[in-house]
Amino acid sequence: MSKARIGIWLIGAKGGVATTATVGLIALKKKLIGDCGLVSQLSQFQHLDLPAWDSFVVGGHEIRAVPLFGEAMRLATEMRAATPELIARCRGELQRIEQRIRPGTARNVGPTIAKLTDMSLPEKETPRETVARLQQDIAQFAEANKLEHVVVVNVASTEPPVDVGQFPPTWAKLDSLLAKQSCPLPASSLYAIAALGLGCSYINFTPSLGAMPPAIDELALLRGARHTGCDGKTGETLLKSVLAPMFARRNLNVMSWVGHNIFGNMDGRVLDDPANKQAKIASKDHLLGDILGYRPQTLVTIEYIQSMGDWKTAWDHIHFNGFLGTPMTMQFTWQGCDSVLAAPLVLDLVRFTDLARRRGETGLLRFLASFFKSPLGVEEQCFDRQFQMLEEWAGEGKGI
User: Fold this and answer.
1) Which of 337, 362, 378 represents a domain boundary (last residue)?
2) How far is it, in rounded angstroms, from Cα 387 to Cα 221?
3) Second label for 377, Cα 20 to 30 Å away, from 32, 70, 88, 149?
4) How confident is the model over 14-29, as pLDDT tens digits?
């Protein structure tokens, strides 16, 4: 395993996914937990020179003034996602990581996320000044911890949707917009620009805009950086990407597919805003038509139920036609701890992305499509075929 020191810079560093990933990384370093849920630990990837767990140093940006250890303890006391004993054994490391978390930005994130802000954030910055400040934080983190590379991971709350077509297609023209207060780029894209402009890697685990504009992809290529995303695929959509190919390959006509989702964590609270919810629903709903080759009637609902905490429940009803035109039904219930499903994928993505860097890969990392609901630059939506892309990439070269 590679022993180079690698930084993980988490956007939304004290949110549920980031905190769970941080606790999990500490627990892996201490050998307090096993490797269940970690794709990078599968046998077909063991020949790869992936970074060892003790190679990673964690820092990040945040807009909420809450203690990291307190958020971690909530995983045990409120979310029932870990034991208090496990969190207590991670306390010292969590407190040290707390010192490496800096104020982020809430620029163009929409009113629901903006209301969560209780830190003192600069109010009169231009987007260019915001990018410079974020870059200074990341650069100081890398220098202070003697890091060979930093991987920036966006695990912040979902922003309202933004029309990517409104942005100029080249980096030179988009760069000129950063000097204007009226620039419509949201925080997720400013983080992406800050990371890629420094030559860092950027992973968008959310459905927010991030590095989606072609001009930001051009920036990655100009700086020899890399990015991937968007929107981590962890639950109901993962099942859709597995089940829909079954209907297609058996020539069973899906007439309708309805999915109802309830959960009560911070993500659920933000998605209770119809504007933020729109971005998530679009990410969850598009893949059925892509897999089936036609578009059945679909309905996706997301409802905030506070008492559910981090535990997500989804009910799906699939109405399909079989031989003789006979209508039939498949139903399933998916229940899982949202952050616990997502956190190991964050760690996997960081390991694979850093290996891609050492292989000299730049720009969009398409081979990571299986991790995302809406993978950029990839039309294939079947999970097994997406996963084959990862396996084929892993088989290239000599493990590095």
Assistant:
1) 337
2) 25
3) 149
4) 999 999 999 999 999 9
